[in-house]
Amino acid sequence: MVKVVVMGVSGSGKSSIGSALAQRLEVPFVDADDLHPPANKLKMASGSPLVDADRWPWLDAVGAALAAESSIVVACSALRLSYRDRLRVAAPDAVFVHLHGSDALLTERLGARSHEFMPTTLLGSQLATLEPLEPGEAGFVVDIAPSPQQIVDEIVRQLPEEAAR
């Protein structure tokens, strides 16, 4: 049984790494971007960052997805401790994997893709919002510079033994 939240700012690879990890672990995958209400997507697409009042209902939907499965991988920014705490209410056993990379690498990756509602101009606000995992939080940081396969291998290596089976 494993509940993993692959977290990080836009461009860190949450969706691709989360999907690959879920395939490797043979568990369901949910991209939290798909759970945003239309109003949130419109706001972000216009270049405006979300505020907490926008995020709470979305985080509750993400928490419900985590709670609905005994094992699951979810890609979710989970930038602040309070957001992760909100998810832990629904899934106390969730492990957070923070995909971390340099500002330059993130900017390069964002410039090479297009996203339905996340313009590259919001990276700065995400980086300003990001609160790294704190000591005592169930989770760990993984560098995004290696290949996706190497990143998934590293995550599996660091997951609790019972989760990686």
Automatic annotation (TrEMBL):
This is Gluconokinase. Pathway: Carbohydrate acid metabolism. CDD domains: GntK. Belongs to the gluconokinase GntK/GntV family. The keyword Nucleotide-binding applies. It comes from Diaminobutyricimonas aerilata. Pfam families: SKI. One of its GO terms (molecular function) is ATP binding. It catalyses: D-gluconate + ATP = 6-phospho-D-gluconate + ADP + H(+). The keyword Nucleotide-binding applies. One of its GO terms (biological process) is D-gluconate metabolic process.
